[in-house]
Amino acid sequence: MRTPIIAGNWKMHKTMPEAVEVCRRLEEMVEDSAVDVVVCAPFTALSALSALGLTKLKLGAQNMHFADEGAFTGEIAPGMLIDVGVQYVIVGHSERREIFGETDELVNKKVRAAITHGLTPILCVGETLDQRKEGKTETLVQGQIRKAFAGVAPEAASEVVVAYEPIWAIGTGETATAEQAEEVIATIRATLSELYGTEIAEAIRIQYGGSVKPANISELMAKPNIDGALVGGASLKPEDFSAIVKF
Ligand code: 13P
Predict the structure, then answer these.
(1) Is 239 annotated as catalytic?
(2) How many domains does the chain have?
(3) What 3-state class would DSSP assign to 123?
(4) Beta strands per DSSP E along 165-240
(5) What angle do CA 220, 221, 223 make, to 5 degrees?
(6) C-alpha distances in angstroms, 105 versus 34, 77, 114, 123, 155?
(7) Element (H or E) spanning 81, and its range?
(8) Considering 44, 160, 179, 219, which has the largest number of Cβ atoms within 10 A of its Cβ?
(9) The domain that contains 211 carries what CATH number?
(10) Cβ(62)–Cβ(9) under 8 Å?
């Protein structure tokens, strides 16, 4: 039985005091929820959020470098995230791939580095609208999964969280239908099964992301392969995010 996991990706939003205020409120609002709840805040807020000693809300980062340390101006190492109480890290978000040129090879290095350091990667995959229209969604997503998991041992693979985020549904208000999301997520699970066998594939949690709101979460969560959501815009408001957590 997979425990659902709802994660908020705040992207480049919220100052440290704003983040503290929101997380204090959220912790109270979602305290009695049975699902895993993660807030992926900007780097600058992580240490203050960790100092709050929250128990229900787990902390995530939105990116990291794969190296332990070195001359990488502006980057953050996995150990630095561990140091401030972070447990999850988003890897390969489409905004990182598209705007900052992250390749599948780089994403794979980050996935492996996260695992080595005891961080849980939230690995994002997903297609553009053109790729969907050309019927390339399945092949593309399968390729992203295979490349991201290259060199990842079976025991470690079962701990990875995958997020299927169709790029055309991110920040557009246009959610994939629950059927569209389930179809691709089932394909992802089938690919994981080819790589690691059914037992491990069945243990891996796969989220949907892209315009998730209180109004569409129940329908998504009702699908057998959808284990949670990676929420952008709606995670910035405690009322909306807590309603999603309580789907
Ligand atoms: P929205 O929920 O704002 O569409 O963003 C989705 C996303 O990119 C989460 O990582």
Answers:
(1) no
(2) 1
(3) strand
(4) 205-209, 228-231
(5) 75
(6) 35, 18, 14, 13, 21
(7) helix 78-83
(8) 160
(9) 3.20.20.70
(10) yes
Give the structural domain span for 103.
Answer: 5-245
Report whether residue 63 contacts ligand 1, using a CB cutoff of 6 Å: no
pLDDT tens-place string over residues 1-38: 899 999 999 999 999 999 999 999 999 999 999 999 99
Give the pLDDT of residue 1: 83
Q: Would you say how long the chain is, in residues?
A: 247
As given in the structure block, the two tokens for residue 185 are: 């997520």
Dist CA 171 CA 90 (whole Å): 17
Model confidence band, residue 174 (pLDDT cutoffs 50, 70, 90): confident
Instruction: Encode pLDDT of 113-172 as tens digits.
Output: 999 999 999 999 999 999 999 999 999 999 999 999 999 999 999 999 999 999 999 988
Give the 3-state secondary structure of residue 4: coil
Q: Is the CB of 207 under 6 A from ligand 1?
A: no
**Ligand 1 in reach of 232 Cβ (< 6 A):** yes
Alpha carbons 220 and 225: distance in angstroms, whole number: 9
- pLDDT tens digits along 204-236: 999 999 999 999 999 999 999 999 999 999 999
